[in-house]
Amino acid sequence: MHDDSVVPPHSVFTHWIDSRHVDAAAVRDEGDMFPGEDKGESLERGHMVNPDSGLDEMYEESWVSGIKLDEEGVEDSSGYVLKYEHGDNKGLVVRIGDLVQGVLRENGDIGLFRWELGHGETKTIIAEVGRHEAFPQNVKRGPNASDKFETPNGWTWVCVESW
Q: What's a Pfam family in this record (predicted)?
């Protein structure tokens, strides 16, 4: 149950890449996080410019962890961040546990994906839109920061963070 006497964590999220805004750096998403009823659930209440109306509007988003437990009941929250940047073209891939998702902006076109990885790195496609083939396909767990991954189209993605 929500306790109004507790000040919730406040976050400001700025965008390096955005699927709906060419000028991603101008996007400012600001909100407060409230714990949900169940473990791994939270409610974000905040405001940002609505891309459809162009007005700064309030929003609510429900978040669920989605991180599975391993055989010993421990969350696998290991992951990495990969970046691609060449001129105005940008891409970002984030993996946390078994969930991997990415966004790509290339010459005004957008590519998005979300995959769930299983045993032996098998991949279940949850969603793929646009230029999803331009993303690195076979990145194993635990790449090192600065590791590079080539895609069939000749792009080089760089691991900028790994944990």
A: HRI1
Any domain includes 71 = no
Is the pLDDT at 96 greater than 70, yes or no? yes
pLDDT at 108 over 90: no
* C-beta separation of 114 from 100 below 8 A: yes
| Residues 25 and 15 sit within 8 Å (Cβ to Cβ) | yes
C-alpha pair distances (Å), 152 with each of 18, 43, 122, 140: 24, 40, 20, 17
144 and 85 in a single domain? The answer is: yes
Residues 83, 147 within the same domain? yes
CA–centroid distance for 77 within its chain? 14
Judge if 121 and 91 occupy the same domain: yes
Query: Which domain covers residue 17, as residue numbers?
Result: 10-64
Q: What percent of the chain has pLDDT over 90?
A: 50
Instruction: Output the pLDDT for position 1.
Output: 52
Residue bearing tokens 């978040």: 63
Between the CA of residue 32 and those of 17, 20, 28, 29, 108, what are the distances in Å? 22, 23, 14, 10, 32
pTM of the model: 0.79
